[in-house]
Amino acid sequence: MAERRLQKAIDTLKESGVRITPQRHAVLDYLMNSPIHPTADDIYKALEGKFPNMSVATVYNNLRVLRENGLVRELTYGDASSRFECSFTEHYHIICEDCGKIVDFHYPSLDEVESLAEKITGFDVSHHRMEVYGTCSDCKQK
Ligand SMILES: [Zn+2]
Ligand SMILES: [Zn+2]
């Protein structure tokens, strides 16, 4: 299942004429199998053993290419480092205020908020984001 998803993503890149370097392949593979919404630094640390010549800049560059091709979503949180994920099924995030962990949860998309906001403000709404904050079960035990 995960293999098929990876292959499909690679086909998408090939169709857009993007070269599949071993690093690019590894970054994509890592992201697809990581539930932690890693930062570029996390990805770098996870892969540097395999690619001793790779720099953090290479990771950023690969993430940018993947994002531009719609394969990776970047999550920004104010001044904190961006986090990245490959999942495109609609979902929301709950974030631990102690350790920064981000966990996915599913809830019917809050479409009515968008149409209400449109009606009240006259904006054309493009999307919304909602985050829930708290203390994760690991941190609660400390
Ligand atoms: Zn935590
Ligand atoms: Zn997520």
Automatic annotation (TrEMBL):
<feature type="binding site">
    <location>
        <position position="139"/>
    </location>
    <ligand>
        <name>Zn(2+)</name>
    </ligand>
</feature>
<keyword id="KW-0862">Zinc</keyword>
<keyword id="KW-0479">Metal-binding</keyword>
<dbReference type="GO" id="GO:0008270">
    <property type="term" value="F:zinc ion binding"/>
</dbReference>
<dbReference type="GO" id="GO:1900376">
    <property type="term" value="P:regulation of secondary metabolite biosynthetic process"/>
</dbReference>
<dbReference type="GO" id="GO:0045892">
    <property type="term" value="P:negative regulation of DNA-templated transcription"/>
</dbReference>
<dbReference type="GO" id="GO:0003700">
    <property type="term" value="F:DNA-binding transcription factor activity"/>
</dbReference>
<dbReference type="InterPro" id="IPR036388">
    <property type="entry name" value="WH-like_DNA-bd_sf"/>
</dbReference>
<dbReference type="InterPro" id="IPR002481">
    <property type="entry name" value="FUR"/>
</dbReference>
<keyword id="KW-0804">Transcription</keyword>
<dbReference type="GO" id="GO:0005737">
    <property type="term" value="C:cytoplasm"/>
</dbReference>
<dbReference type="InterPro" id="IPR036390">
    <property type="entry name" value="WH_DNA-bd_sf"/>
</dbReference>
<keyword id="KW-0678">Repressor</keyword>
<feature type="binding site">
    <location>
        <position position="136"/>
    </location>
    <ligand>
        <name>Zn(2+)</name>
    </ligand>
</feature>
<feature type="binding site">
    <location>
        <position position="99"/>
    </location>
    <ligand>
        <name>Zn(2+)</name>
    </ligand>
</feature>
<feature type="binding site">
    <location>
        <position position="128"/>
    </location>
    <ligand>
        <name>Fe cation</name>
    </ligand>
</feature>
<keyword id="KW-0963">Cytoplasm</keyword>
<dbReference type="GO" id="GO:0000976">
    <property type="term" value="F:transcription cis-regulatory region binding"/>
</dbReference>
<feature type="binding site">
    <location>
        <position position="96"/>
    </location>
    <ligand>
        <name>Zn(2+)</name>
    </ligand>
</feature>
<comment type="similarity">
    <text>Belongs to the Fur family.</text>
</comment>
<keyword id="KW-0238">DNA-binding</keyword>
<keyword id="KW-0464">Manganese</keyword>
<keyword id="KW-0805">Transcription regulation</keyword>
<protein>
    <submittedName>
        <fullName>Peroxide operon regulator</fullName>
    </submittedName>
</protein>
<dbReference type="InterPro" id="IPR043135">
    <property type="entry name" value="Fur_C"/>
</dbReference>
<keyword id="KW-0408">Iron</keyword>
<dbReference type="Pfam" id="PF01475">
    <property type="entry name" value="FUR"/>
</dbReference>
